[in-house]
Amino acid sequence: MAKVSYVGDQPIESYGIIGDLHTAALVSREGSIDWLCLPRFDSGACFAALVGHQDNGHWQIRPAGQVLDSHHSYLERSLVLATYFETATGVVRVIDFMPPRNSHPTIHRIIEGVEGQVEMEMVMKVRFDYGKSVPWARQHGDQLSMILGPNALLFGSTMKLTGKDFSTRASFTVSEGQRHSISMVFYDSTGPVPRLHDASEALDACLSFWHGYMKACTEHCAEYQELVERSIITLKALTYGPTGGIVAAPTTSLPEELGGVRNWDYRYCWLRDAAFTLDALLVDGVEHEAASWIKWLVRAAAGDPTQLQIMYGIGGERLIPEFTLKWLPGYLGSAPVRVGNAASEQFQLDVYGELVDSFYRFQVSGVEPLEEFWPLLTAVVEHVEGHWNEPDEGIWEVRGPRRHFTYSKVMAWVVFDRAVKLIEEYGAPGPLERWTKVREEIRDSVLSKGFHQLVGTFVQDYDSDRLDASLLRLPLVGFVDATDPRMVATVAAIDQRLSSGGLIKRYETGDADTDGLPGREGVFLACSFWLVDNLILQGRFAEAKARFDELLTLGNELGLFSEEYDPQTHRMLGNFPQALTHVGLINTARYLVANAPEELFPTGRKPARRLARSPRTARA
Asked: Residue 599 has what DSSP assignment?
């Protein structure tokens, strides 16, 4: 357990997440909700201390005196979070959860005595508009309302609530076996006031929902089972229930470099990340997730499919203008704090490959009939046919000049490879001979221009000798075999030149023309998982397991992972929790357990299931 400090900003890894499949809140190990957007992931925050300070909104419940130790845990196979506090007089836990939404977004906080007797205190500052606006608070008997324009919150509590200095406070004692609770519901101030439900009854219903959802997770991943299940729950928590859109992360502007400007809003649905996520969930038989996402995609791409964007709002919105919140200082002074994402206007060729590959996988798994969506896919393939030879911003969304990124060209190859397979294997209508020819043209382009003869490796783009961790995905999408000497050399070079503390960076930063941004960043955790995947495909199982086990130590005590990590300061970086990182964890665990020798898993494993996720490799 960790010693608790109540001064200064909390490390990213000190947070847990709760959510209701519409939005999510981050709860610190200090018992403080420091981030919550209502009513959706991408709405304005009413608690924004995470990227500001306490006056920008937070809701803390903690012992009034000295805390000796504190730690988080989730109640079994759920998104119900418990924070334990140990004091000189006793132990108390705060149970936080958001019931999967049927009507209004609600947070319940139950304070439960575990041992002895503990004096507790609650301090809450609600600040709408990302920590800027103070609401109007009114007492209604034993309830409290806070209203600002259309936004309204209603609180009910077993403790007496008082107001002081534009904050709401409570002091109370909790003894062993005793429970107190406080609940908050969000509603439209112009509509009827909702009813607050009993916290204990809501807890039972919330646990029942999550246990029911996890019944679909029947796979056994040996010693990694618990972390795989936690990742599956986290990915579900990042899904917007009404549409099936999946956010990359529930936060904005958690920095890739402390004090730097590489701060982005991830509360949107990237087609790439969503495709990766659904691919991971499909293995667990959660077919309805994939079906919902396909329908979301068709709605978002309605009209001219060639205008497909790399990302959308969680409801399918196309306009995601980027602006900064100048009143927020940023996490540990890492300004600016951004809302929206200008990368939504970029041209990223790889997204088309992820899209068509997803439909191919859905067809193989029998999720959705091909006929209904083939016109959309045909339009996408024809669009790529006319644009694959153009430069783009690439998978990492560089904010400098467009380039001919090797990975982008490989994913253009995937577009035609999967389209050809859909025609050959499932009888889809299409110009088989023409698309087969384009597929080979792209392959020849990559092998002649994306492989640097002097360096002896695949390279980031056609006009440089730089390395890029996205090249680790070439075997994973079936472009080249992992044991091909060119790929073996590329993996070795990436491990040497892009490694920091044994972890993999996306690419080399620091040069003005690298990505159009100043500063550097931490290692990108998904890339480190991709490297382990390559080691597995090369048959280097013991080394792969050692690297994977080390990667798993970078999560927090809850099994949650951020986007990036700083090997020097040993701190998480980037938005949190990050869907792509959890996808990497799930996939690598499955790769390893299904293919490594039995002696690496003395506690047992599911009967071996050989790698089947990558399409058959077309050897170069």
From this structure: G
CATH number, domain of 96, equals 2.70.98.50
In the numeric block, which tokens belong to residue 488?
A: 């073996």
Q: Residue 205: inside a domain, yes or no?
A: no
What is residue 5's predicted lDDT score, i.e. its pLDDT? 36
- Rounded-to-integer distance, Cα 468 and Cα 482, Å: 16
* E-assigned strand segments in 382-518: 451-452, 457-458, 499-500, 503-504
Specify if 101 maps to a domain: yes
**60-to-166, 515, 552 alpha-carbon distances in Å:** 15, 40, 29
Residue-wise pLDDT for 282-299, tens only, equals 766 666 777 777 777 777
C-alpha angle 371-377-381 in degrees, rounded to nearest 5? 140
**Residue 381: CB partners within 8 Å, gap ≥ 6?**
356, 415, 416, 419, 430, 435
415-442 burial, b at 16+ Cβ within 10 Å, e below that, comes to bbbbbbbbbeeeebebbeeebbebbeeb
pTM of the model as a whole: 0.93
- CA 114 remoteness from chain centre: 33
* pLDDT at 604 (0 to 100): 58
Do the domain assignments include residue 565? yes
How far apart (Å, rounded) are the C-alpha atoms in residues 83 and 529?
30
| Cβ-contact 525, 565 below 8 angstroms | yes
Query: What would the DSSP string read from start to end of 206-260?
Result: HHHHHHHHGGG-----GGGHHHHHHHHHHHHHTEETTTTEE-S-S-B---SSTTS
**Burial class of residue 55, CB neighbours in 10 A (0-12, 13-18, 19+):** middle
Check which CATH number belongs to the domain holding 456 and give it. 1.50.10.10
For residues 79 and 178, state if they share a domain.
yes
Please choose, from the candidates 319, 330, 326, 387, the residue with its C-alpha nearest in 3D space to the C-alpha of residue 353: 387
Nearest residue to 355 via CA among 437, 400, 296:
296
157 and 272 share a domain? no
Q: Indicate whether 151 and 268 sit together in one domain.
A: no
- The pLDDT score that the predictor gives to residue 1 is 39
Q: Is the dihedral of CA 533, 503, 560, 544 positive or negative?
A: positive
The DSSP line for 530-542 is HHHHHHHHTT-HH
Residue ranges for the chain with pLDDT beneath 50: 1-8, 512, 606-620
Q: What is the pLDDT of residue 400?
A: 79
Q: In angstroms, rounded to a whole number, what is the distance separating the alpha carbons of residues 539 and 93? A: 46
Domain span at residue 33?
12-189
Q: Is 107 helix (H, G, I), strand (E, B) or coil?
A: strand
Angle, vertex CA 292, rays to CA 584 and CA 383, nearest 5: 80
Is 65 inside a domain boundary? yes
- What's the pLDDT at 3? 38
Q: How many angstroms separate the CA atoms of 207 and 330, rounded? A: 35
What ranges make up the beta strands (E) of 512-589?
A: 523-524, 564-566, 571-573
For 447, the token pair is 């092998």
Do 293 and 274 form a contact (C-beta atoms < 8 A)?
yes
What gap in Å lies between CA 561 and CA 572, rounded to an integer?
8
Same domain, 270 and 169: no
Which tens digits make up the pLDDT trace of 485-504? 999 999 999 999 999 888 99
Amino acid at 47: F
Can you tell me whether residue 15 is helix, strand or coil?
Answer: strand
Residues 148 and 95 in one domain: yes
